[in-house]
Design goal:
Blueprint (H helix, E strand, L loop, with lengths): L3 E4 L2 E4 L4 E7 L8 E7 L6 E6 L6 E3 L7 E6 L4 E6 L8 E8 L13 E2 L3 E6 L1
Parallel strand pairs: 2-11
Antiparallel strand pairs: 1-3, 3-8, 4-5, 4-9, 5-6, 7-8, 9-10, 9-11
Length: 124
C-alpha cells in the first residue's frame, strides 16, 4: 500500500510559478512510476506529466510541454511538478499517482494509488 500526499498548491497570477510536491509513504517509492493529473471544474481528469521509476523517461501533455517539469527524489520519497508561465486554464485540482509496474504512463487506469489533490488557481 502506498499513500500519497500532495502539497504546494495555491493562488497565483498568470505568468507565475508554483512547485507541487507529492510525498509517498512506504519503501517502494523508487520502484514506482509516477504521474501528475488534474481536474478542472466541470471537466474530466486529464494527464499532465509522468516519470518512470528511474527518472529516465518523462512524458508531458502538449498543453504543458515547455512550461512544466516533473522530477523525483527517491531519497526523499517525493515527486515534484515545477509549473512556470502558468495560465488561467491551468486552474484545477492536481493529483499525483503511482504505478506499481514502474511505468511513466499517460493512462489513468494504469495507476494504482492516488493522492487527495491540491488546488491550483491561476488568475488573469
Amino acid at each position: 500500500q502506498v499513500q500519497l500526499v500532495e502539497s504546494g498548491g495555491g493562488s497565483v497570477q498568470a505568468g507565475g510559478s508554483l512547485r507541487l510536491s507529492c510525498v509517498a509513504s512506504g519503501r517502494a517509492f523508487r520502484s514506482y512510476g509516477m504521474g501528475w493529473f488534474r481536474r478542472a471544474p466541470g471537466k474530466e481528469r486529464e494527464f499532465v506529466a509522468a516519470i518512470s521509476w528511474s527518472g529516465g523517461s518523462e512524458y508531458y501533455a502538449d498543453s504543458v510541454k515547455g512550461r512544466f517539469t516533473i522530477s523525483r527524489d527517491s531519497a526523499k520519497d517525493t515527486l515534484y511538478l515545477q509549473m512556470s508561465f502558468l495560465k488561467p486554464e491551468d486552474t484545477a485540482v492536481y493529483y499525483c499517482a503511482a504505478n506499481r509496474w514502474g511505468m511513466g504512463t499517460m493512462k489513468t487506469l494504469e495507476y494504482d494509488y492516488w493522492g487527495q489533490g491540491t488546488q491550483v488557481t491561476v488568475s488573469s
